[in-house]
Design brief:
CATH architecture of one domain: Orthogonal Bundle
Order of helices and strands: HHEEHHHHHHHEEHH
Radius of gyration: 24 Å
Distance between the termini: 62 Å
Largest sheet: 2 strands, antiparallel
Number of strands: 4
Structural class: mainly alpha
Shape: globular
Number of helices: 11
Helix content: 40-55%
């Protein structure tokens, strides 16, 4: 190939690449209204976006993988946690995490009820944007163990004193019974013996020894509507409660979760947890829409 042919090839290739890029750009803009659910951008969503920016949430969190990486990605947070949990958390994040025990850096934004509702509306809109699987591996919050014990960092006990309480610094002691029931339920999810998060993930599609809790409410409703369900529950909350205290009443599909008609899920929670604690756990799990 001589210089003239090389120059012609470069010019033609550049022109073709430019046309392809221009075509893809035009096609992307054509799809934006559908991909972003532009028709669902309500005044509440717009106000929620303003709350997000006014409080500089992006300095710690990410949306669509963009932002700082000090805290969890919130792209799908409304689907992972649900409005009741988010509302309780935004009102008082200190009830959910302890600065010394969990290295919690989330400050209380001191938002008004309307601002919280607007921010959740914004999260709902973000969660329903077709981001085509991005980010592929969002940062999630997980529990960890207290060294030297079989307790998790979210340990709490509302039925009596915890034997490890005096062995831990003040910031690492259990949350009190005055905390929000959903916060207490989350603490139980990490601290019940055995801990729920030892077997159950809260990330979509991440099945461990037990199925993920992401999308639990939708799956529970599908189960209740199925003629194959032979349990006694009639509501989603009752189904979750039944799954905790009588795990073999209905067996989750998959040989990794049961054998011989008996669930691998421990049957001790009905005895080790009080009725109040079971209800707190149910309220927390019911936020996973």
């Amino acid at each position: 190939m001589n210089k003239r042919q090389t120059r012609s090839f470069a010019i033609i290739a550049t022109g073709v690449a430019a046309l392809v890029f221009l075509g893809m750009t035009i096609d992307s803009h054509r799809q934006f209204p559908t991909l972003t659910n532009a028709d669902k951008i309500t005044p509440a969503v717009t106000r929620g976006k303003d709350v997000w920016h006014a409080n500089n949430c992006i300095n710690c969190h990410t949306l669509f993988g963009e932002g700082a990486y000090y805290a969890p990605d919130l792209t799908k947070i409304s689907q992972l946690r649900g409005a009741p949990y988010l509302k309780a958390f935004l009102k008082a994040p200190e009830r959910f995490y302890d600065e010394q025990r969990h290295r919690r850096l989330m400050p209380n934004p001191n938002l008004q009820d309307q601002e919280i509702d607007d921010l959740i509306a914004f999260f709902d809109w973000v969660a329903n944007v077709d981001n085509q699987g991005w980010p592929p591996r969002p940062i999630l919050v997980t529990g960890s163990s207290i060294p030297g014990t079989n307790l998790t960092i979210a340990q709490q006990n509302v039925s009596g004193p915890d034997p490890t309480t005096e062995q831990t610094p003040p910031g690492a002691r259990p949350v009190t019974a005055s905390a929000d029931p959903i916060a207490l339920g989350e603490a139980l999810f990490r601290s019940a013996v055995p801990a729920c998060n030892a077997c159950h993930s809260i990330a979509p599609g991440v099945n461990l020894a037990g199925p993920t809790q992401a999308g639990l409410v939708a799956r529970a409703q599908q189960t209740l509507d199925s003629p194959a369900y032979q349990g006694k529950a009639e509501t989603v909350e009752a189904f979750i409660r039944e799954s905790i205290v009588s795990p073999s009443a209905w067996l989750h599909p998959g040989e990794m979760y049961s054998a011989g008609g008996v669930s691998f899920m421990p049957t001790s929670y009905g005895e080790s947890l009080t009725d109040e604690q079971v209800e707190q756990l149910v309220q927390y799990l019911a936020t996973f829409k």
